[in-house]
Structure to design on (459 residues):
C-alpha cells in the first residue's frame, strides 16, 4: 500500500523579530523544503496549513512541481528605476486610464525621485522608513511656507500641496507591489515595504453632503453667475453642478461626457468610459436635469455629437482640478457671501464627490431602492451606499425623535389623568402610593385624610 504523503510546518523567528514560515515534506522519497514568507507579509499558521494541504494534495496526485528558480536574468544590482519601469510597462495595460494616471503620479512624483538609483537588492526596511520620514518632513516644510504666506511652487509655477497620511500610504502600497515582484524574482528575500508598521496612521474623513435646500441655493447662485457673463463666455456652472448632484456622475465621467452620450429620447446618459466595470451603465435622468442639459445644448449649439458637453475654451475635456478651481470654488464662495449677509453659516465643504454623495442621499431619502441607487451611481461594492443610507436613516430618525420630544414638552400638563378609585369613590391605596413620591405612605387601616396639623384638641 502506498504511503500517504505527509509534511510539517516549520516556524522560525528571525533576529529582526519577524517570523518565517516554511514547509517540509517528501516527494518520491526526497525531502523538499518550501519557504513561504514572513508574518509581515501576511503569513500565519492557519494560512501555512492551507498551503501545506494544497502541496500534499498535489504530491499525492503526482503533479507537484518545485517552484521555478529565480529569474537568471534578474540582476540584484539593477536599479529601482530600471526594475520599476519594466514592472510598470508590463502592468499598466491591465488598468483603466484614470488608475494609470494615479500610478504614474506616485511613481514619477514620489517613488522614483527617492529610490531611482538604489539597487533593488539593497532596499531594506530602514530605507523604506527613511522615505516615509522624508515625506513627513517635506509636508511640514510646505505647511510652514504656506503659513508664512510664501507657498512653494513646482517647475510649472503651480502651488505644491502637502501630502496627507492616506496619500503617503498609497505611494507605499505601490512600492509594496513593485517589491513583491522583486521577491518573486529572487532579488529580495522579503518585502521591506509590506506590513502595517510601514504605514502611517490615518483618520477616517468625515464625508458630508448637501441638504436639499443647500443644493437648491447653490444651483441658484451658479445660474446667476452664468447669466452675469456674455453668452460666449459662459462655462455652464449650473448644468455642471446639476449633472453631478442630480444624476450622481463622477467628476471624470461628467468631464468626459459627449453629446452622443445624452440619450434625449429615453432621458438617460450612457456612461461607457467609467472607472470600473460596474461604472459602465445607463443613468436615468429626471426631467429637471434633462431641461438643464437641453438649455445648455441650445446655447452651445455643438457642431458634432462627438463634442464634449462641458469643454474648455479650446474644446478639450475639463479635469477635476479645473472643476474645483473654476466651477465649484467661485460658486461656493459667492453662495457663502450671500449666506453671511443673511446671518447664515457657510455651506459644508463642497467637492465633486460631495455632490455625488448628495445625489445618493437624496435618492435614498426619496425611498429609492438601494439596488437601483447602486446601479445609477455605478457602485459594485455596497459599502459606500450603505454608509450613506445609514447617515440618512440617522438623520430622519433624529428629526422624528426631536419632533416627538418637542410635542411631549408642549403637551406637558395638558393631559387629564384618569385616577383610579375604589367602590366608594375614594382614591385607591395603589393610587395614593404611586402619587406620594418619596413621602412616607399611609399604612393600611389608618385614615387617608390630610396629614397636616390637627385642627382640634386631642381626646
Amino acid at each position: 500500500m502506498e504511503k500517504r504523503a505527509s509534511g510539517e510546518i516549520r516556524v522560525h523567528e528571525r533576529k529582526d523579530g519577524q517570523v518565517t514560515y516554511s514547509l517540509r515534506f517528501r516527494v518520491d522519497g526526497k525531502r523538499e523544503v518550501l519557504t513561504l514568507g514572513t508574518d509581515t507579509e501576511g503569513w500565519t499558521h492557519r494560512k501555512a496549513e492551507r498551503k501545506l494541504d494544497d502541496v500534499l494534495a498535489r504530491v499525492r496526485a503526482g503533479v507537484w512541481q518545485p517552484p521555478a528558480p529565480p529569474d537568471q536574468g534578474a540582476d540584484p544590482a539593477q536599479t529601482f528605476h530600471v526594475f520599476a519601469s519594466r514592472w510598470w510597462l508590463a502592468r499598466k495595460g491591465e488598468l483603466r486610464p484614470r488608475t494609470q494616471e494615479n500610478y504614474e503620479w506616485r511613481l514619477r512624483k514620489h517613488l522614483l525621485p527617492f529610490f531611482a538609483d538604489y539597487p533593488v537588492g539593497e532596499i531594506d526596511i530602514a530605507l523604506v522608513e527613511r522615505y516615509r520620514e522624508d515625506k513627513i518632513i517635506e509636508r511640514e516644510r510646505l505647511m510652514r511656507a504656506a503659513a508664512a504666506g510664501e507657498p512653494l511652487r513646482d517647475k510649472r509655477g503651480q502651488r505644491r500641496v502637502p501630502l496627507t497620511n492616506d496619500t503617503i500610504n498609497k505611494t507605499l502600497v505601490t512600492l509594496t507591489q513593485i517589491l513583491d515582484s522583486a521577491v518573486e524574482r529572487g532579488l529580495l528575500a522579503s518585502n521591506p515595504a509590506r506590513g502595517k508598521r510601514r504605514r502611517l496612521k490615518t483618520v477616517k474623513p468625515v464625508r458630508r453632503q448637501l441638504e436639499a435646500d443647500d443644493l437648491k441655493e447653490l444651483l441658484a447662485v451658479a445660474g446667476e453667475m452664468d447669466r452675469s457673463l456674455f453668452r460666449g463666455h459662459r462655462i455652464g456652472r449650473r448644468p455642471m453642478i446639476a449633472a453631478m448632484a442630480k444624476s450622481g456622475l463622477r467628476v471624470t465621467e461628467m468631464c468626459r461626457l459627449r453629446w452622443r452620450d445624452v440619450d434625449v429620447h429615453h432621458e438617460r446618459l450612457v456612461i461607457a468610459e467609467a472607472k470600473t466595470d460596474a461604472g459602465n451603465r445607463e443613468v436615468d435622468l429626471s426631467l429637471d436635469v434633462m431641461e438643464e442639459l437641453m438649455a445648455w445644448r441650445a446655447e452651445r449649439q455643438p457642431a458634432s455629437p462627438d463634442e464634449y458637453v462641458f469643454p474648455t475654451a479650446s474644446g478639450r475635456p475639463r479635469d477635476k482640478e479645473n472643476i474645483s478651481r473654476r466651477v465649484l470654488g467661485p460658486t461656493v464662495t459667492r453662495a457663502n457671501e450671500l449666506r453671511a449677509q443673511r446671518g447664515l453659516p457657510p455651506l459644508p465643504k463642497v467637492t465633486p464627490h460631495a455632490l455625488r454623495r448628495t445625489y445618493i442621499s437624496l435618492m435614498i431619502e426619496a425611498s429609492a431602492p438601494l439596488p437601483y441607487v447602486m446601479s445609477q451611481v455605478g457602485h459594485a461594492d455596497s459599502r459606500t451606499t450603505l454608509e450613506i443610507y445609514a447617515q440618512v436613516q440617522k438623520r430622519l430618525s433624529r428629526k422624528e425623535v426631536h419632533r416627538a420630544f418637542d410635542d411631549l414638552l408642549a403637551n406637558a400638563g395638558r393631559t387629564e389623568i384618569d385616577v383610579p378609585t375604589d367602590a366608594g369613590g375614594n382614591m385607591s391605596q395603589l393610587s395614593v402610593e404611586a402619587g406620594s413620591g418619596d413621602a412616607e405612605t399611609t399604612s393600611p387601616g389608618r385614615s387617608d385624610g390630610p396629614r397636616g396639623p390637627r385642627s382640634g384638641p386631642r381626646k
User: Anything to note?
Assistant: Confidence is low (pLDDT under 50) at residues 430-459. Residues 79 and 119 are 4 Å apart (CA to CA). The chain is about 45% helix and 10% strand. Strands lie at 7-13, 19-27, 30-38, 262-263, 268-271, 281-284.
